[in-house]
Amino acid sequence: MPSFLQRSTASLRRLAPDTFTLWLLGTVALASVLPCSGQTAVVLGKVTTVAIGLLFFLHGAKLSREAMLSGLTNWRLHLLVLASTFVMFPLLGLALKPLAGSVIDANLYIGILFLCTLPSTVQSSIAFTSMARGNVAAAVCSASASNFVGIFVTPLLVSTLIVRGSAHGPGSTLDAVWSIVEQLLLPFLAGQFLRPWIGKWVDRHKPMLKIVDQGSILLVVYTAFSESVNEGLWHKLSPGSLVTLGVVCALLLAVALALATWTSRRLGFSREDEITIVFCGSKKSLASGVPMAKVLFAPGALGMVILPVMLFHQIQLMVCAVLAARWARQAEARALEADAVQRGLPL
């Protein structure tokens, strides 16, 4: 049995920021000190658009149709995850509206609403579900479906929840949907179409493709924060506002986790399905959120919009890592107990 010190050290490691989060922080710091502007910003903007298209093309090429279809029969689970992602979260975001302008900065509240409209993560949802001994096939299907549905639903929710025609929101619902389809969905579908020919190559080069994946997000973050810094982001945003934002994101995640757990148990799902529902239904995708924000929002508003997404991303990783480890320990204890019973050993 591991000692108390070993368990404590392992818990602290799970709470530590991952490497990509450190890169994100470094990118924000770079944009704060050396923001791009003028012709450099124009060129980087065009490069970013191409990088986002490549990012979603690779997402399409990486997604295995067989793995996705294997979990389709569990339709009750998938409906609950989609309802949690695209109904529960937006309602929670609206419930925070009385705090906007007083407790929460009004511009940051726009970012919180945007966060609530985003689809679930794919890689981390599947990884945590697997670690916790949940229903991995259902997690693959549910998280993938959430991202696909989000391409259409997120811009619709943004247009509904955020005042149209403002400096923050898209001009019209149809324009927003078409922008997402043109810049994100079409590359994704192209990747899916070419998967029979390039799928094996993509699967063999996942570490290299991860660099493209994360590099695209870092590029969007740098250009977004550069624009916002040039417009006085850090003069408008106080340290107190950042602390408050962190508390709100943590509270939002806690409520989502509690509701997902309670609902799955009330509806009689198995332990494995409950784990899948909790992880897929409570997480929000940074990988999809940052590119979508670039398409949907004015450049000057991007920094404030993606800041809640970045903060929520790190909080959800830390909390879900602890939850997954706890569920894994419980599964191991149950397995040992069942083995002891089967062999007639004392418990």
From TrEMBL:
Transmembrane segment boundaries: 41-58, 79-96, 108-129, 136-157, 177-198, 242-262, 301-325
Record keywords, A-Z: Membrane, Transmembrane, Transmembrane helix
GO cellular component, one term: plasma membrane
Matching Pfam families: SBF_like
Protein name: Bile acid:sodium symporter
